[in-house]
């Protein structure tokens, strides 16, 4: 089975191309931008961005240990089931990602909200399209497979029927990660000040894309195929 679908690649690469066309991040390809990956600000941001994907991998490869840990404090205080605990931890990790991004912009430019206000109208329009597309895919995947499906229920003891309806019937293999990446690219677009780009914002975005790709690859290597009945 293919790790990625053609539509996954087309939408993701198309979003990146549009971002380059609108944001024109020429400063992001400079020598100083590449050197920025060795700075504490960049490394801390990259660590914050990585958190949720490390969490995904830990639960994916060690579901029994995670379920056992969820049965007692402190994790048992976060929810009644491993899926609920996992969802809570992912929400925290996603928040940490945004703090990492905003912290990086603050350290290299100043007020990230000021950077956003100085973004061009075309940049804001692109961001709106990317975020709307991303959140539409995220909402669709939740509607299709629910919390149990999104948060590895089939590995954590919750039955999850295989789904081949929307948005999978469009040709997506990983709609949740395509949606997540598009949404994040929209946020990155509006804080892409020249100073942040020179400090390494583009390599940080590339690292984010790599993490989404790696997590997609991990999941595709052991999907819930055939473990439960399909649903439209």
TrEMBL record:
Its EC number is 2.1.1.71. Its main location: endoplasmic reticulum. One of its GO terms (biological process) is phosphatidylcholine biosynthetic process. Pathway: Lipid metabolism; Phospholipid metabolism; phosphatidylcholine biosynthesis. The chain crosses the membrane at residues 5-22, 42-62, 83-104, 124-145. It is an enzyme of class 2 (transferase). The keyword Protease does not apply. It is a multi-pass membrane protein. It is found in: Endoplasmic reticulum membrane. It comes from the Eukaryota. One of its GO terms (molecular function) is phosphatidyl-N-methylethanolamine N-methyltransferase activity. This is phosphatidyl-N-methylethanolamine N-methyltransferase.
């Amino acid at each position: 089975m293919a790790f990625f679908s053609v539509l996954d690649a087309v939408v993701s690469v198309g979003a990146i191309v549009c971002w380059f066309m609108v944001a024109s991040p020429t400063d992001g390809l400079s020598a100083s931008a590449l050197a920025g990956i060795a700075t504490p600000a960049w490394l801390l941001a990259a660590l914050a961005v990585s958190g949720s994907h490390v969490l995904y991998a830990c639960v994916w490869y060690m579901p029994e240990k995670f379920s056992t840990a969820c049965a007692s404090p402190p994790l048992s205080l976060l929810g009644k089931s491993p899926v609920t605990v996992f969802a809570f931890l992912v929400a925290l990790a996603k928040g940490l990602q945004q703090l990492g991004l905003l912290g990086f912009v603050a350290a290299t430019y100043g007020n990230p909200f000021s950077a956003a206000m100085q973004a061009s109208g075309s940049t804001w329009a692109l961001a709106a399209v990317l975020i709307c597309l991303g959140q539409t895919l995220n909402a669709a995947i939740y509607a299709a497979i629910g919390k149990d499906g999104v948060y590895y229920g089939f590995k954590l003891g919750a039955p999850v029927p295989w789904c081949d309806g929307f948005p999978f019937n469009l040709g997506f293999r990983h709609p949740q990660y395509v949606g997540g990446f598009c949404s994040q690219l929209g946020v990155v677009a509006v804080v892409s000040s020249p100073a942040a780009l020179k400090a390494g914002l583009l390599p940080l975005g590339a690292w984010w894309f790599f993490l989404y790709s790696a997590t997609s690859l991990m999941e595709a290597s052991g999907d819930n195929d055939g473990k439960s009945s399909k649903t439209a």
